[in-house]
Amino acid sequence: MSQERLTRIEERLTQIETKLKTLELDIEPEGRISEGFEYLSGDIDSFRNETRKRLDRLEHGQHRIQASLEVILRHLTAYGQDS
Fold first, then answer.
1. How many CA atoms lie within 13 A of 22 on its CB side?
2. What is the C-alpha separation between 31 and 22, in angstroms, rounded?
3. Helices 32-77 and 3-27 meet at what angle, rounded to 10?
4. Whole-angstrom Cα distance, residue 33 to residue 41?
5. Residue 8 CA from chain centroid, whole number
6. Quick check: 51 and 45 in contact, CB under 8 A?
7. 17 vs 26, higher pLDDT
8. Which of 14, 20, 28, 59 would you label with 75, given CA atoms 20 to 30 Å apart?
9. Cα gap 37→27, rounded to integer Å
10. DSSP-assigned states of every residue in 5-52
11. Which range has highest mean pLDDT (64-68, 70-74, 77-81)?
12. Is the whole-model pTM more than 0.70?
C-alpha cells in the first residue's frame, strides 16, 4: 500500500471518528436531541395550561350567560313571581 493511500485512509478514519463523537454527543441523555425534546415538552405543557385556562373562562362565561338567560326568561314569563 502506498503512503498516499494510507494517509487518505487515516484522514477518512479521523472524519468518521469525529462524526461518531458528534452523534454520541447529540444522542446522549444530556445531548442536543434530549434538550430539543425537553424544550418541546415545555411548549406542550404551556399550551395545555393555556388551553385549560381558556376553557375555564369559556365555561364561566357560559354559566353567566345561562344565568342571565334564566333571569330574562323569568322576567318575560313572570315565572316564579307572585301574582
1. 6
2. 10
3. 30
4. 12
5. 46
6. no
7. 17
8. 59
9. 11
10. HHHHHHHHHHHHHHHHHHHHHHHSTTSHHHHHHHHHHHHHHHHHHHHH
11. 64-68
12. no
Contact 28, 34 (CB under 8 A): yes
Q: Cβ neighbours of residue 55 under 8 Å, at least 6 residues apart? A: none
Residues in Cβ contact with 25 at an 8 Å cutoff, skipping those fewer than 6 apart: 31, 32
- Which amino acid is located at 29 in the chain? P
Per-residue cell: 56:
375555564
Three cell numbers, residue 65: 350567560
CA angle 47, 48, 54 (to 5 degrees): 90
